[in-house]
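Researcher: Quick test of sequence recovery. Tokens follow.
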């Protein structure tokens, strides 16, 4: 199998699986229990939190575990709007956010909020000037992702934060950094984000665990779940200790020679662009700065047919975000591409393990698909 869909999820290294297995079978205590095995698990959870917080660049007390990136995005939006409920009922976001943000914003609209959805340009870019021009005195929240999960574009969160401060805006700033964590150099402080979402399974960790950074401007965050008081009373429920252990181990592994890993992914992406440029009718959609995501279109050839054909050869690519489950991508639609171009969009995404030989095999399969099948659009 050739796996080129790292933006959807990533393979779990054996060391991560082993760390989780040990917790499941030997270190199974409830961190809220007061006998030794429970107290030991409480200590370990806090150590794992510190490992992840150090990699993110924040204090451990600012990092709260969630079940996934979607949960973190939902929590961030509702918590920010609750804190700023007396300021106003306006949200600024973009039309190319992950569905976890867009659907929660639509839910907020049903609660009486007004949401401004900013459109990107032809290449998928959003500018800080666009965002700041949409901010009003009654804006409670600005939510803009750090890295677009379909195009690889990096959005100017730091410039947005500085612009909000210069305007004297009380709007809180959230960024979905799921595709940016350990793919780009940043900290919440360098971005100026009040709320920031990450997820384990994009970096070699298990599914079912993520985290939300909550910054100092969040004075009294609204709890996501009420109950036994775990996560400082903000997200009750027994901690998912095995998933947290796997998250921390994945972070440790990714941090080993992280600059080298990022350079390798960027070189693989550049090599893919070079190889794919030799395929007739293939267009690169965006030259986004993220090192691991490449969106292209085989113009005139339906993307699902391409995905199915390559999949039958053991090559895993995507027709867009895995979260769309076969539905047309709102990100591609927002670019207003010609129909034949939009219908042929595929996404390739890379990891530290991706090789040039795998890119060569994918390029060859795409060329054969082009040469052996008539366009249907």
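Model:
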């Amino acid at each position: 199998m050739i796996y080129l869909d790292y933006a959807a999820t990533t393979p779990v290294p054996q060391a991560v699986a082993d760390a989780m297995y040990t917790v499941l079978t030997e270190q199974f205590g409830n961190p809220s229990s007061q006998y030794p095995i429970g107290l030991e698990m409480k200590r370990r959870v806090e150590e794992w939190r510190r490992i992840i917080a150090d990699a993110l660049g924040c204090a451990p007390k600012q990092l709260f575990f969630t079940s996934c990136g979607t949960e973190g995005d939902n929590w961030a939006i509702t918590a920010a709007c609750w804190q700023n409920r007396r300021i106003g009922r306006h949200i600024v976001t973009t039309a190319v956010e992950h569905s976890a943000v867009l659907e929660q914003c639509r839910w907020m609209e049903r609660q009486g909020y007004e949401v401004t959805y900013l459109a990107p340009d032809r290449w998928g870019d959003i500018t800080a000037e666009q965002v700041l021009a949409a901010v009003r005195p009654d804006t409670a929240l600005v939510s803009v992702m750090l890295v677009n999960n379909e195009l690889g574009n990096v959005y100017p969160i730091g410039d947005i934060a500085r612009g909000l401060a210069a305007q004297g805006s009380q709007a809180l700033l959230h960024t979905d950094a799921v595709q940016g964590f350990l793919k780009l150099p940043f900290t919440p402080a360098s971005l100026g984000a009040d709320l920031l979402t990450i997820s384990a399974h994009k970096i070699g960790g298990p599914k079912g665990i993520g985290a939300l950074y909550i910054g100092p401007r969040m004075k009294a965050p609204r709890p996501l779940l009420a109950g036994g008081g775990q996560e400082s009373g903000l997200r009750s429920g027994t901690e998912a200790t095995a998933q947290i252990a796997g998250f921390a181990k994945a972070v440790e592994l990714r941090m080993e020679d992280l600059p080298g890993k990022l350079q390798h992914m960027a070189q693989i992406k550049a090599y893919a662009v070079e190889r794919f440029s030799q395929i007739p009718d293939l267009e690169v959609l965006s030259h986004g700065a993220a090192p691991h995501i490449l969106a292209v279109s085989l113009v005139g050839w339906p993307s699902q047919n391409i995905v199915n054909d390559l999949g039958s050869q053991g090559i895993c690519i995507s027709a867009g975000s895995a979260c769309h489950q076969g539905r047309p991508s709102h990100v591609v639609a927002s670019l207003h591409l010609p129909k034949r171009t939009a219908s042929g969009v595929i996404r390739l995404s890379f990891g530290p393990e991706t090789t040039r030989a795998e890119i060569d095999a994918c390029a060859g399969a795409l060329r054969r698909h082009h040469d052996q099948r008539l366009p249907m659009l």
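The chain has 13 helices and twelve strands.
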